[in-house]
Specification:
heterodimer, A: 280 residues, alpha/beta, Rossmann fold, 2 domains, three-stranded antiparallel sheet, globular, B: 290 residues, mainly alpha, MetI-like fold, 0% strand
């Protein structure tokens, strides 16, 4: 298959058009897998539509299927029934066309590669010329604030820096869609705040569509245009909260003190508690 | 190395020397007693000990006898002479290294096949394991005879026996190494829609290197054993194995021990070279913090 040449990286101006294009469309998605003695309903009748430029957070307790949902979108998991389209294609076609960048819970950097060569990995697979690879890697590292660390090895970096490298790697081939699975889950709160701020700026600058899995209510409210609250056994969507109406697109950490922020956070928490009462 | 670090090493070496001398006195005493008695005149314990440490054909030669034999052999003759142990070491090392090279190719190829195709694991691995349960001493003469009939003599039969011993740890280590990649990193390759060959070259192979080098250290030492064993039935005139054999024919225990010491030195050197290669080729080799 010929390597898809990604568009040159430019900062996309805010979308002026009225009708937002649907990037990810999930319809009646159900995923069951067979455990030792009983079937596990990881996802049950989940429907969700994500428009271009959206920042969607999936929030819910462990086992609510939020990671599974994202893995289905990424074609890393096969649904039992239901329909998923990514950019109007099946997830497999989208994956083969490298439509998305995926950031995992762990940085998953290759310890034998330097920071720069880790970021160059997807470009190498896509067959870009060497000079081009290096230039793009440097741009992406600059974007996540890691200029000067190109020649370091992953183990010489802190956990937060490693995760930033993995974000730079996901951005390297300039996909329109960014899938992030609890990327900051293992980091301390101060680092997490810092990275949240960086991520929201990055998102404003690049206008990528993001799907973000998290456990943290504050993180979800701070980053998202919409929050999808999920509950476990079976994994399903309880509530979809629109943050864009009440919160500005450009956000600083102090908006977390605002009444609008508190109100949305409260609604998320209520949704999560409702899901839990089901459980006990 | 610091003085503090070298102290345990020195103590250990000293302990080995003391035990060796004690063993020489103890094992050589019966023969020495016989000789002294036959000589007819009175002798003391000191005479006996002196005699045990200076026998022409001792049961266990002393370290200084072995060292002297090594010294005269290594310095007394040109390197190309059949009386120089370095010549024999070179012959054995050549066979061992040729076998090691073949073993690496065979071992890595088998491992790659086993990892890529599940059916090979169930069909091939039992044979690989069975091959190692056959004593090398039993199979070595057969290989030499068969290859001799086919017109292959000299280095090749010895290299094949060395290969036979050393491909096994490489296969086992590489299978584990090629499977050692983190599931997340495999998922990552999938999100890039990387092909099997790309995943192998960019992920599985580099991830396996620490395992490979551990196996290579075992294999290179095994290849020396294989080459020496192969020299026993070939009846060759050259090689450490040939020296061991002729030493035992003529009761030249000092010669046997000299050859053993050289074999050990050869193995240690080869393992050290593999270790150096590992340092050079496995960057960021700190156990791979993820």
């Amino acid at each position: 298959m010929p390597a898809a040449q990604p568009a040159p990286l430019t900062l996309v101006p805010p979308a002026a058009d009225a009708a937002p294009r649907t990037i990810v469309d999930v319809r009646n998605l159900t995923l069951t897998y067979q455990a030792a003695d009983h079937p596990v309903y990881a996802l049950s009748d989940v429907s969700l539509s994500i428009s271009k430029g959206d920042f969607i957070s999936l929030i819910g307790p462990s086992g609510c299927g939020k990671t599974t949902l994202m893995r289905v979108v990424a074609d890393l998991e096969q649904p039992t029934s239901g329909e998923v389209t990514v950019n109007g294609m099946t997830p497999e076609q989208a994956r083969l066309k490298r439509a998305y960048g995926y950031v995992f819970q762990a940085p998953a950097l290759y310890p034998w590669r330097t920071v720069e060569r880790n970021v160059m990995l997807p470009l190498e697979i896509m067959g870009l010329p060497r000079a081009d690879r290096q230039q793009r890697a440097r741009e992406q590292l600059d974007l996540v604030g890691l200029s000067g660390f190109e020649r370091k090895f992953p183990w010489q970096l802190s956990g937060g820096m490693q995760q930033r490298v993995s974000i730079a790697r996901a951005l390297a081939f300039n996909p329109d869609l960014l899938l992030m699975d609890e990327p900051f889950g293992a980091l301390d709160e101060i680092t997490r705040d810092h990275l949240n701020l960086q991520l929201t700026r990055l998102w404003l600058g690049t206008r990528k569509t993001c799907i973000f899995v998290t456990h943290s209510i504050a993180e979800a409210v701070f980053l998202s245009t919409r929050i999808v609250v999920m509950s476990p056994r079976p994994g399903r969507i309880l509530d979809v909260i629109d943050c864009d109406r009440d919160l500005p697109r450009e956000r600083t950490l102090d908006i977390r003190e605002s009444p609008e922020f508190q109100r949305i956070a409260h609604r998320v928490r209520e949704g999560l508690m409702e899901g839990h009462s089901y459980d006990d | 190395m610091t003085i503090k670090g070298s102290l345990p090493v020195a103590v250990m070496a000293l302990a080995v020397l003391v035990l060796w001398y004690a063993g020489a006195v103890w094992l050589n005493a019966p023969m020495a007693t016989d000789a002294l008695n036959r000589a007819g005149h009175d002798w003391t314990t000191a005479d006996l000990i002196r005699a045990t440490l200076a026998m022409k054909r001792p049961i266990l030669p002393t370290p200084d006898q072995v060292a002297l034999d090594l010294y005269t052999s290594l310095t007394g003759y040109p390197v190309t002479s059949i009386r120089n142990l370095l010549y024999h070491t070179g012959v054995t090392a050549g066979a061992a290294l040729a076998g090691f090279g073949m073993g690496v190719v065979l071992g890595v190829a088998l491992a790659a096949g086993i990892v890529q195709a599940r059916t090979l694991e169930s069909s091939l691995l039992p044979w690989v394991i069975a091959s190692q349960t056959v004593p090398i001493l039993a199979i070595a003469p057969m290989i030499v005879v068969i290859l001799g009939n086919l017109g292959f003599t000299g280095l090749l039969p010895k290299a094949i026996i060395a290969m036979y011993l050393c491909f096994f740890p490489i296969t086992i280590g590489m299978v584990k190494g090629l499977r050692s990649a983190d599931p997340l990193t495999l998922d990552l390759m999938r999100t890039y829609s990387a092909g099997t060959a790309q995943t192998f070259r960019l992920l599985r192979l580099p991830a396996s290197l620490p395992y490979l080098f551990t196996s290579l250290k075992i294999a290179v030492a095994a290849s020396v054993v294989g080459a020496i064993v192969a020299e026993l039935p070939t009846g060759g005139q050259a090689g450490l194995g040939a020296r061991l054999l002729s030493g035992s024919y003529y009761g030249q225990t000092v010669q046997i021990w000299s050859a053993l010491v050289m074999a050990a030195v050869l193995s240690v050197t080869l393992v050290a070279v593999v270790g150096l290669a590992e340092r050079a080729l496995v960057p960021g080799g700190r156990g791979g913090a993820r």
